[in-house]
Design a protein that fits this description.
The complex is a heterodimer.
Chain A (H helix, E strand, L loop, with lengths): L2 H14 L1 E6 L6 E8 L2 E4 L9 E5 L5 E9 L4 E5 L21 E6 L7 E13 L2 E8 L10 E3 L5 E9 L2 E6 H14 L1
Antiparallel strand pairs in A: 1-2, 1-4, 2-3, 3-6, 4-5, 5-6, 7-8, 7-10, 8-9, 9-12, 10-11, 11-12
Chain B lengths: L2 H17 L2 E5 L6 E7 L2 E5 L9 E4 L5 E10 L4 E6 L20 E7 L5 E12 L2 E2 L5 E2 L2 E5 L10 E3 L5 E6 L8 E4 H14 L5 E2 L2 E7 L2 H4 L8 E8 L4 H5 L6 E5 L2 E2 L3 H6 L9 E8 L2 E8 L1 E2 L4
Antiparallel strand pairs in B: 1-2, 1-4, 2-3, 3-6, 4-5, 5-6, 7-8, 7-12, 8-11, 9-10, 11-14, 12-13, 13-14, 15-22, 16-17, 17-18, 18-19, 18-20, 20-21
The chains are: A mainly beta, B alpha+beta.
Chain lengths: ~190, ~300
C-alpha cells in the first residue's frame, strides 16, 4: 500500500468510531464523540450538556443518549447509547507517543462529518511520568471537541478537548479509560 | 512495518536527535526562547528574544541551567551569540549546506524551559534571495516556511527529516511569519560576533521615500536625474543630521551615483564604508546642493 492509501485507511478506521454529539433543538451546540466500547460513547463534558443528547454516527442514524457521568474538571463525559452496528475504537495508551509522532484529529467542525486534520505531537505535558495532556500541532475547530486524536496506526490515543494557543490539547487515552471505568462502577 | 508508522517513528527520531542540542535561553521576562548549541560552548539564538544583556542563563537538554555571556548581537540579521560552559552536552549536527529545496519536509524543535522539548512540522514554502532585511543586512538566502509558530519558535533550529540542522528559525524577519536563516548566514554572522562582538553597518540616520523628479528640475542637473529619495525624517544627532540634510530635501545622487530606491542607498552603506565621507547631491527648494556626510556605524538597537 502506498503512503496515501495507508493514510486513507487510517482515517477510515478513525471515522468509523467517531460520532457527532449534539443537544436537541436548533440552538444546541454540537461536538464530537468516540465509540469507546459497546454501549459507551466518550465526549467532553462541555459537549454533553444536560438534558437530551443526540448522537449521530457516520451511518446517518440518530440515536438518543443518556449522560451516565460528566466531570467538568477533567472535561470528560460518558454517554450511554445503543451502539448496535457501530465499531468501537482501537485504543492505545498515550505513553506510546513521542514528540514528533504523527497524529490525526477527526471531528465534526461546522457539522461537517468526519473532517480530518493531521500533524505531529508538539509537546507532552507530564506529571510524575504520566502524560497529563497531549499538545499537538494539529489544526482544530470548535466542533472537534470530544473527537479522537489518533496515531499512525489509527488507534485512539486521546480525546480532543480544546485549542490552547493554536495547539490541539487532547486528554490522554489512559485518563479517559480510568474515567470510563469509574463511571461504569458508579452506574 | 507499514510506511505511515515508519514515517511517524522517523519524525519522532529526528526530533529526539535534535533535542539533545536545543537549549532554552532565559534572557527575557516570562517565557524563555529557544537556542542552538551550535559549536562546543557557543549558543546561537535570535536577537529579538534577547531582551537583557546581563544575567542570561541557558537551560540544557540534560535539565541543567548554566550561566551564559552575550558574545554579540546583530539586529539586522536577528541573530545573537552566547558563550556557555557546554561540557556534557553535544553540539549540533548539520545537514549538507544547500541541500534544502522547496517542498522539503522540515521540523522545528524548540525548548522553553526544563520541562522537555517541543516540535512542529511543515514544509519549505519558498526560498528567497539574495535579500535585504528590513534592517539593512544583505543575506544570500532566506527560507520561508509553511509551519505553525508556537512558543519557542524563534531561536530554534530548523531540522531536516534526519534531525540535522538546516537553518535557524525566526519570526522577526518577515513580519511575524515563519522563516529560517540558512547555515551560511548564521555561520558568517556568528564568526563575526565571536571575534568582534558586533557587525558594523553604515548608517545615515534619515527616513527616505522614493520620488520622481519632475523633468523641469531633474533635466537641469548634469547628468540629468529622473528619480530621487525625499527626506521624511532626520535624526538631528545622526550623520545625516550633522551633515546638514533637511526635511524635504530630495537626494538624487551619492558620490555621483543616482539613487532610485532606498536599496541603492543601503548598498552604499556597506561595512567598509563606515567612517568615509560621501558627497550627497540634493535638490532643496528646486536648487541643487551638495552636502558632505560622514557615514557612521549603525547603532546596535
Amino acid at each position: 500500500m502506498t503512503l496515501a492509501d495507508q493514510l486513507a485507511a487510517v482515517v477510515a478506521q478513525l471515522r468509523r468510531s467517531t460520532v457527532q454529539v449534539r443537544g436537541r433543538g436548533a440552538a444546541a451546540g454540537s461536538g464530537s464523540g468516540i465509540v469507546w466500547k459497546p454501549g459507551v460513547i466518550v465526549t467532553n463534558a462541555h459537549v454533553a450538556t444536560k438534558g437530551f443528547t443526540l448522537v449521530e454516527p457516520a451511518d446517518g442514524s440518530v440515536r438518543e443518549a443518556r449522560v451516565v457521568a460528566s466531570d467538568p474538571r477533567r472535561d470528560l463525559a460518558v454517554l450511554g447509547v445503543d451502539t448496535t452496528g457501530l465499531t468501537p475504537a482501537d485504543i492505545a495508551p498515550a505513553g506510546t507517543l513521542r514528540v514528533g509522532s504523527l497524529v490525526l484529529a477527526v471531528g465534526n467542525p461546522f457539522g461537517l462529518s468526519g473532517a480530518v486534520t493531521t500533524g505531529i505531537v508538539h509537546k507532552l505535558s507530564e506529571r510524575r511520568r504520566r502524560t497529563r495532556l497531549i499538545l499537538a500541532d494539529v489544526r482544530l475547530l470548535p466542533g472537534n471537541s470530544g473527537g479522537p486524536l489518533g496515531d499512525a496506526a489509527g488507534r485512539v490515543v486521546g480525546v480532543n478537548a480544546m485549542i490552547l494557543r493554536g495547539l490541539a490539547a487532547a486528554i490522554p487515552s489512559d485518563v479517559v479509560e480510568r474515567f470510563v471505568r469509574e463511571a461504569q462502577l458508579a452506574a | 512495518m507499514d510506511t505511515l508508522q515508519m514515517l511517524s517513528d522517523n519524525l519522532a527520531d529526528a526530533v529526539d536527535h535534535a533535542a539533545a542540542w536545543v537549549v532554552a535561553v532565559n534572557a527575557r521576562p516570562r517565557i524563555a526562547a529557544s537556542g542552538v548549541h551550535w559549536r562546543p560552548g557557543v549558543v546561537v539564538t535570535t536577537h529579538h528574544t534577547v531582551r537583557r544583556e546581563e544575567d542570561i542563563t541557558v537551560t540544557l537538554s540534560d535539565g541543567r541551567t548554566v550561566p551564559a555571556t552575550l558574545a554579540g548581537r546583530d539586529a539586522a540579521t536577528d541573530l545573537a551569540v552566547l558563550r556557555i560552559d557546554g561540557s556534557g552536552v553535544p553540539p549540533a549536527s548539520f545537514a549538507e549546506p544547500g541541500s534544502l529545496k522547496v517542498g522539503h519536509v522540515v521540523l522545528q524543535v524548540g525548548r522553553t524551559g526544563s520541562a522537555g522539548h517541543s516540535a512542529s512540522f511543515g514544509v519549505v514554502s519558498t526560498i528567497v534571495g539574495p535579500w535585504r532585511t528590513w534592517r539593512g543586512a544583505e543575506i544570500d538566502q532566506l527560507f520561508q516556511l509553511d509551519l505553525a509558530i508556537h512558543d519557542g519558535f524563534s531561536g530554534s533550529p530548523l531540522v531536516d527529516s534526519q534531525g540535522n540542522v538546516v537553518g535557524l528559525n525566526t519570526s522577526g524577519l518577515l513580519r511575524g511569519t515563519p522563516a529560517a536563516l540558512p547555515l551560511s548566514v548564521v555561520n558568517r554572522v556568528m564568526d563575526a560576533l565571536l571575534t568582534k562582538g558586533r557587525i558594523a553597518r553604515g548608517y545615515l540616520g534619515v527616513g527616505l521615500q522614493p520620488v520622481e523628479v519632475p523633468s523641469a528640475l531633474g533635466g537641469k542637473l548634469d547628468p540629468p536625474r529622473r528619480t530621487g529619495l525625499i527626506v521624511l525624517a532626520v535624526d538631528a544627532d545622526s550623520p545625516g543630521g550633522r551633515g546638514g540634510l533637511q526635511l524635504s530635501d530630495v537626494i538624487v545622487a551619492v558620490d555621483h551615483q543616482s539613487v532610485a530606491d532606498v536599496r541603492d542607498l543601503l548598498a552604499l552603506l556597506a561595512p567598509e564604508r563606515v567612517g568615509s565621507t560621501v558627497a550627497v547631491e540634493v535638490l532643496r527648494g528646486g536648487t541643487p546642493h551638495t552636502i558632505r556626510v560622514t557615514i557612521a556605524e549603525r547603532p546596535t538597537r
